[in-house]
Amino acid sequence: MFTLLKVQYSNMLEYRVEIALWAISGIIPFFMLNIWTNNNLNESINISNDMLSRYFLSAFFVRQFSVVWVVFSFEEDSLMGKISPYLIQPLNPFFRYFAQHLAEQITRFPFALIIAFLFFIFNPESIWIPNLGILLLSMLSTFLSFLIQFLIQSIVACLCFWTEKASSIERLLFIPTLFLSGLLAPVVSFPTYVKSWIYLTPFPYLIDFPANLLSGNETNISGGLSMQILWIILLFPLFKKVWSEGTKKYTAMGS
Amino acid sequence: MNLRKSLKVYKKFLHTSLASELEYKTNILVDLITAILSLIGSIFLLSIFFQNNDYIGGWEFEQALIIQGIYTILNGITNTWFNPNLTEIVKHIREGTLDFVLLKPIDSQFFISLKKINPSGFLEIMLGFFLLFFCIRINQINISLSFLTLSLITIICSIGILYSLWFFISTTTIWFVKTWNAIEVLRSFLYIGRFPLNSFSFSLRIFFSVFIPIAFITTIPSEVFLGLSQSWKILLEVIVTTVFLVTSRKFWLFALKFYSSASS
Question: ipTM for the complex?
Answer without folding.
Answer: 0.80
